[in-house]
Design brief:
single chain, mainly alpha, 127 residues, 6 helices
Length: 127
């Protein structure tokens, strides 16, 4: 266990470099990233992605954070023209729910949609 409170997974079977510091630090950072992912994600799909990665390599009992991030991006980050069209359709459906709704709530829904498709809009304008 390290001073920071995060375990160093030397038992993961990973060979350390000459002094072991760089590799140990990388293992600690990966473990910390995985702990943060577990604590922050919601939903069965996200949990399944994390659990699948934890079982993928017996040398990394916490899983490899970069693989989890890649899988989450592949699943939830749109990256094609169809996604751009989908975004426009969702944008066209955003309306005030009723006459009493605060317009800021509608703007928040638009902003949420913009954030969801932010990387997509750059790709589409580049094409």
């Amino acid at each position: 266990s390290s001073d920071s409170g995060w375990e160093t997974y030397e038992s993961d079977g990973v060979t350390l470099d000459a002094d072991g510091k760089k590799h140990r630090k990388a293992l600690e950072m990966n473990a910390k990233a995985m702990h943060l992912l577990v604590a922050s994600v919601k939903g069965v799909t996200c949990r399944n992605i994390i659990n699948k990665e934890k079982q993928a390599d017996s040398n990394f009992i916490t899983g490899k954070a970069h693989k989890v991030i890649s899988e989450l991006e592949n699943r939830f980050s749109p990256n094609d023209r169809m996604a751009g069209t989908e975004m426009l359709m969702k944008l066209n459906k955003i309306r005030l729910k009723n006459a009493n709704e605060n317009p800021l709530q509608m703007i928040e829904r638009i902003e949420k949609l913009k954030i969801t498709y932010a990387s997509q809009s750059k790709k589409l304008t580049d094409e």
